[in-house]
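seq/struct pair 1
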Amino acid sequence: MTVSVRGIYATALTELLAEVGVTNPSDPIRERFDREFGPGSAAAHVSTTSDRQGVGVTGDPDTVDAVVERLRNVGVDVFAYRDGAPRGAVFEGYVTETRGGGAVVDLGENEGYLPFDDAEGYVDDGETVRVQVVDPNPPWKSRRPRLSTELRAFGDAATLVRGRDALVADTPSSAPELARTTEILSPEVPDGWAVEWGDAAADLSMDALGDALANAVEAAESLDAALGGGVDIDDVPARVAVTDATTWVWFGGDARRALDNVRRRVTETIVGHHRIKAGSSSASTAVDFAESLGALPEEFPFAAVSEQFGPAAGDTVAIEHGKPDGRLITLGRGEVTDCDPDAGRVTVEREMTAGGTYDALGVERQEGDVAITRFQEGRWWYPTVYRGADGTRRGTYINVNTPLELFPSGIRYVDLHLDVVKHADGRVEQVDADELQACVENGLVTPELAEKATGVADRIENAFRD
């Protein structure tokens, strides 16, 4: 049971997953740790999501479960989501829509996107097509998982591709000799499959290469067996085969601070290391530079981060409202009208459109209404004051959430449903406690996190009543 780890969380997670077993680390990680790493292929892979908000864990289901169990204990605001369309899963799908560059495919519980360049033959609306998930996406991303009609048996260092003529389909540019080496390895590649060597293969011994190929061959044979039965057309869409599991893990502000502490056991780490790196690639590079100089402030340098990367007065930011089930809803975009860098606080103003009512306030949205929201880094709540065109206060809504993170282009958190509202006439009440309890019962929110949210809401309500 071994894993490979890549991305901005690699140092902390390599330390955290030591008991699970980390193999084939990158050169910087190998130099940072005073320990020996295994040379073999990994049973699962941990990689940072493209938006840096968390990681995807893909591979052997038991190994994935062991890794995710460790990650969920990092902080109270860690959320994990098992993907119903994991990497490598094969579906008999139904084409619901074609676009300029590809087709939307109904997979049952999920939808996927099949680029025409990755499809064999013509694809049209209403057709049934057999596809494989090659690039899954976390639930908080709007993009559908990418599909292909070419089938692969995914592995760590070696992947087998179905339907190629050559024995070797591809090798890393740094190790072209693997094309010849493959011929002398003991595992026999099944007919109709070709080997695609990954970058991890370049540094493996002959024994390790043989093990990696053997694992890929086993996966290919399992896939062939699963595909042999066929699918009744009445059952489409249907999942035909799955060998790997994929689970997405979202880190909140509390979890990122905990990962900083884990990383600090290994090497010098700036306060807010993972929080800053999650903001943008340029901020990530700046963190590496500061740490290389030994510039380690004792507190999170929000003022410096805001000045260099945002958000700052005049910027436009999105309010990225996460949900415990993994969805991400953008509540809108507004202008930063005020920024207090020393307090880690920004004020965002949004012009509201007419129509409908404000949640829980029961007040109609009117033309000219303005929403003024104050966000403070690390706070478990934020207030929004709604005012009419004449400046009249129409009500105040306090959202209870995981610790706020004020990233350059958006404010991020996960909504915990429980909120406090203050009506224009002064009445104060808590709302949506039943929705929070439902999340606990469904396993989306831990009892510890729900207790924290309830305590926050109680304190806010008492403060409003005083």
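seq/struct pair 2
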Amino acid sequence: MRSDIEVGIVGTGSMAVRHLESWRALGVEPVVWSPRSAADFAATYGARTASSFADLLAGAQLLDVTSPTLTHPEYVLAAVEAGTDVVCEKPLARTGAAADALVEAARNAKVMLYPAHVVRAMSPWAHARDDIHAGRIGTVLSASFTRIGEGPDAPWFHDHAASGGAVMDLLIHDLDVAEWMLGRIVRVSGTEESDPVRRRHLARLVLEHESGLVSTIDGGWTGRPRPFHAGFAIGGSAGSLNWPLVEAGSSDPTSAIPGENPYTRQLRDALAVREGAVPAVAAEDGARAVHLAEAALRAVRTGAVCPTS
């Protein structure tokens, strides 16, 4: 059990719950603050609370940002200016330019900025990457990723100016791991079906990698009750890798993932980075994922093939 680090969590949504549970699994009891609902969150989950963001930050050695996307820059920059390490839920920011500014600020201040791209901590994806990079399936010839669910309830997610919709908030996971597993993505094209009133945002993305490989991503928010599914299929000249569309419980989309809870695994990694370890997800990776999602949004809105940088 760890009791030697003070963690402050900003936000009280579903990601705050996941992070709170995982910090506790690591022996840390965080303090939580939100401008609206910290008292209700505390009553439900038995969490300690701060009376203000200033008080939260003053007592924290690490700030864990799980608040809505548009608020990320404000909280991350405040922590960086205070010399406090940061874990920030994806996306780091709503735009690539804003994400780049956070990375630069953290670098200049010599403060850890750890993007919480939890799929990299999920064992099927991590093992598949290891197999690909070790050459165990030969040359990769095809790859597809799927991630689809009912979608979140909070209205801000369905204001695409605030969230980027399912492409920026959900499929950013697959954009990140597609590049992580298969190499740099240079162009993206695609189509979308978008109806914010029905809370529906589905997309099909076609990714062109620097190697010449073409991969695809399908998924998003259906706007109707359904279990969460995610998976991949990767074919190589000497074998294949598949994680089928495993149905996960709607209350915990990670319930079908074997091994250590991936939220706990990523926070364990963040603690190790504070002590000098190489991060599983670098700050620059988080910013790059935002740029990839921006390119994908341009592609589905314009019908063009869009470069990623």
